[in-house]
Description:
Blueprint: E1 5-7, H1 9-21, E2 25-32, E3 35-40, E4 51-56, E5 59-64, H2 81-84, E6 88-95, E7 104-107, E8 115-121, H3 122-136, H4 143-149, E9 153-157, H5 168-171, E10 183-188, E11 195-200, H6 203-211, E12 215-216, H7 219-234, H8 245-251, H9 257-264, H10 270-274, E13 281-287, E14 294-300, E15 310-311, E16 314-315, H11 320-339, H12 349-352, H13 360-379
Parallel strand pairs: 2-8, 8-9, 9-10
Antiparallel strand pairs: 1-11, 1-12, 2-3, 4-5, 6-7, 6-14, 10-11, 13-14, 15-16
Helix pairs in contact: 8-11, 8-13, 9-11
Amino acid sequence: MTDVRVFGSDGLDATIAVLRRRGYDVFGPTLRDDVVTYGPIESVADLPVGRGDEQSPARYRSRARGDGALFGYAAPVQSAKAQFLPSDELLWTSRPGDAASGPVIERQAAERRPVAFVGLRSCDLAAVLQQDRILTQRAHADVAYAGRRAGAFLIAVTCSDPADTCFCASLGTGPSPGEGADVSLTEIVGDGPHRFVATPGSPRGTELLDAVGAGPASDEDVAAAHRVERRAVTRMGRELRTDDLVGVLYASTESPHWDAVAERCLACTNCTLVCPTCFCTTITDAGDLTGGAAERRRVWASCFTKDYSYIHGGSVRTSTQARYRQWITHKLATWQVQFGSVGCVGCGRCITWCPAGIDLTAEVATLRAGDTALKSSRAAGPRPSPRED
């Protein structure tokens, strides 16, 4: 039988305190500049108590819920990605050496405290596992990412209030956390006392629940947690059909719909910057004016910029049409060929934070309809030539 526990807000506070005592840098949802985003936390008081949100295409608003929910919002502005793959990372510095040894290069290998996340969204948990497969489980691992990811403790939470832009249920990445969390939580508000139903996902998760005195959950606790999940599924704001995405997008390479999207797309890169699975980076080199020092940094990149596809002689994708087509085709189709899964976790951030309100799910539906019409036309056979009288 599955080991299911329960504790109150004091148990969650104790969880944060135990993780901090054990040397973790603890992150969780916080309210900053009136938006919910992940940041350092020290106690339950740092969580967005009683705050929810309203998200729709090109719109985000934080709102008061009128209750004491700690996780009553949809996807935070940013995901957990920045803690493991920073947007700006110093790789090494150099300074002149003597004539015999040449320049002295100092690599950045600072000691890091392990990271713990409390209240990680289920979609963000799925994204972390995708980043793990891509950056650490192939022939050449990303050493910097692996170092930050090592020892991380993940406490994920069921999403009880998905936004109008959410579609994690379509992709199987939520609203309840899947595998990969050390502890999975479901917050119960307004259905009996305020409490958290907790399921350990690893031996150290079990040990942590023991350490904070989490007791066994009752049948009613488990049933209440299931009700939270079922209600969230019915309130999902978007749907994305995943059958034959590779075929649909490959068949749509020359679709005129790309021109319609390009008329709205600003190529601002917002969608890639908030996406929890995008992993593209570039390298920048800079030196000081005296020539006495130089540094190399790794920064996030975006396939929506013209320079991203630059090779000698120019850029491969010079139009917004080509760059949007590249992004969505890679995210939903060629990602499957490369990594064995769809590169989207249904968090909806790309829809919320697109200034033009472009909706990935709607664009795919349009392309799918066009592909279906084309197949129907082909199945009907060639049209007879008009008769000349």
